[in-house]
Write a structure and sequence with these properties.
The complex is a heterodimer of chains A (about 270) and B (about 260). Chain A is mainly alpha-helical and about 270 residues long. Helices cover about 70% and strands about 0% of the residues of chain A. Chain B has about 260 residues and is mostly helical. Chain B contains 15 helices and 2 strands. In chain B, strands 1-2 form a two-stranded antiparallel sheet. Classes of the chains: A mainly alpha (about 270), B mainly alpha (about 260). Chains A and B meet through α2 and α9 of A and α2, β1 and α10 of B.
Chain lengths: ~270, ~260
């Protein structure tokens, strides 16, 4: 375990070095969040009764989404891992007395967290200072907040476990670019990054909520704002747990299969 | 112009060398903007209109905006890679050649994969044109053409500004993307959807509304002032300060030496 923790720390401190990029990212996220909220406000004014969640729940959702973008956006993948698979650098990785899956997993979590830590605090602070309908609301109760944190953690695990599958598919195909792009758009839409899932029409929405993508950011952010509470909240968290286990297991299986037949060309 | 055609041919042929990669990137481009379309579609499945605009009208607006953006991106892509050109000293080679500097930068890269976004824009444009209920008289057709021209010019001008900034910073400034990507992303709805403050910014600071919002009102017949027909062309004037800034940057240019 210690080995993986040190991998985590290495990657984490590298991530913290990019402060310029963080400032640019933060300002972009802030503008994006504001535009998104203004847009939904226009829809809210058009027909408040058709709005599927409280407006304040929506604003919290959007600010959380912008603040923790780096944690859950699928396209924050590590190039180095792809390169090591396609370029043969994997041979070195395999020499280490470490489990490849756990090592990459730790690296990815560290990478995402280091990016998010730099960005989330200023965005959240600013968002809390905004006037009433536009700003971030404090969580409803302590229990909600604890559940929210727990669900955030699970969501990160689901996201990383899914991206591990994307890395590992590289072993099986010559041109992983196509798969990656299709996966990015699928995840983006079905995780509620384009529009929050409650806005989807009935029928489609229920199916979407069962998919692993809904276990990414959707659950955590909706628990925070009270949109998912009580029994439905616990149900959603159990589903998250299920997807964490299922995705990690299938990732490990993929890796085992791939390593059985991997051939690293010399040179 | 002759030279540009030559370069166009070269880039086209080189893109066609990697057919699979070209196809995949094109599909990727298509999918990304397809998500935006789905977002609009599902919102309108729930709400019948926003600020009085119907789904079909928003589609038309979205299509014009994204078409202008992808045209600009296809042809003015050279500006986007300009920071790396300064960085690796490639720009010094351009300076010694006896042809226009801007022309050479434009020619250095023409991105055909943006066609994916373009195809999407064309499909939605056709849909919007057919169903938005706009009576297509000559003046309205001219307005749409001007909207496209003005939009493409404005986006290209912003790319030029992005390039010019890199004279001073050597690196590309990511913050600039807020303006270009933001307008691409949020220009899907007519700008008054976002409220008065935003509308003022996109009218007076970066004149996106001149090609997107005001002439759009004319198309829908909500404002019959004839001036709105040629208003999109005014947004092309944004090119002037950007060009001046580029020239100032050029005077300050010191080679990085690499």
């Amino acid at each position: 375990m210690k080995k993986y923790v040190s991998f985590f720390r290495m990657r984490f401190s590298t991530g913290l070095q990019y402060r310029q990029a963080a400032i640019a990212g933060m300002s972009t996220q802030f503008v994006w969040g504001a535009m998104e909220i203004l847009l939904f406000k226009a829809f809210y004014e058009a027909d408040p009764s058709a709005f599927p969640m409280e407006f304040s729940a929506l604003t919290s959702y959007i600010w959380l989404q912008q603040a923790f973008l780096a944690l859950y956006m699928m396209w924050f993948l590590e190039r180095e891992i792809f390169d090591s698979i396609t370029g043969g650098g994997i041979a070195y990785e395999l020499c280490r007395p470490l489990d490849l899956y756990s090592m990459w997993f730790a690296r990815n979590i560290a990478n995402r967290m280091s990016k998010a830590v730099l960005r989330c605090i200023p965005i959240l602070l600013l968002a809390t200072c905004l006037p009433k309908p536009y700003g971030m609301q404090p969580p409803r109760s302590l229990i909600t907040f604890i559940l929210f944190l727990f669900s955030m953690g699970l969501a990160l695990l689901v996201t990383v476990a899914f991206s591990m599958i994307l890395y590992l598919l590289c072993f099986y195909t010559i041109s992983p670019l196509g798969i990656r792009m299709v996966a990015f758009s699928l995840v983006e839409f079905f995780s509620g990054a384009v529009i929050p899932l409650p806005f989807l029409p009935d029928g489609i929405r229920q199916v979407c909520e069962l998919l692993p993508f809904a276990s990414m950011q959707n659950v955590a952010f909706r628990i925070y704002s009270g949109d998912l509470s009580g029994i439905r909240g616990y149900g959603a968290i159990s589903l998250q747990l299920f997807w964490v286990v299922a995705l990690i297991l299938s990732g490990k299986l993929l890796l085992k299969n791939a390593l059985n037949k991997v051939v690293v060309q010399g040179g | 112009m002759e030279l540009y055609k030559k370069y166009f041919g070269i880039h086209f042929r080189s893109a066609m060398q990697y057919k699979v990669s070209f196809l995949l990137t094109t599909i990727g481009q298509f999918l990304v903007s397809f998500n935006i379309f789905l977002g609009i579609y599902f919102l309108f499945a729930r709400f019948s209109s926003v600020k009085g605009y119907t789904y079909q009208e928003v589609m038309l607006c979205f299509a014009v905006n994204i078409m202008a953006y992808s045209l600009a991106e296809m042809f003015a892509r050279g500006f986007d890679t300009f920071p790396s050109m300064i960085n690796n000293g490639e720009f010094d080679r351009i300076l010694v050649r006896p042809k226009g500097i801007l022309l050479q930068i434009l020619c250095s890269k023409i991105e055909f994969t943006r066609i994916g976004r373009m195809i999407q824009a064309i499909v939605m444009f056709t849909y919007g044109v057919k169903t938005s209920g706009v009576p297509w008289s000559v003046d309205k057709i001219i307005t749409v053409c001007f909207m496209l021209i003005g939009g493409t010019a404005l986006y290209s001008a912003l790319f030029l500004l992005y390039a010019a900034v890199s004279f001073f910073t050597i690196e590309g400034i990511e913050v600039m993307n807020i303006v270009t990507d933001g307008a691409r992303e949020y220009g899907k709805y007519p700008f008054d959807t976002y409220g008065k403050a935003v509308l003022k910014i996109v009218t007076y600071v970066v004149p996106f509304a001149l090609f997107q919002y005001y002439p759009f009102l004319y198309l829908l017949g909500r404002n019959t002032n004839k001036v709105l027909i040629i208003l999109p062309l005014a947004s092309a004037f944004f090119y002037l300060p950007c060009y001046l800034f580029f020239q100032i940057g050029l005077k300050h240019y010191k080679s990085t030496g690499s």
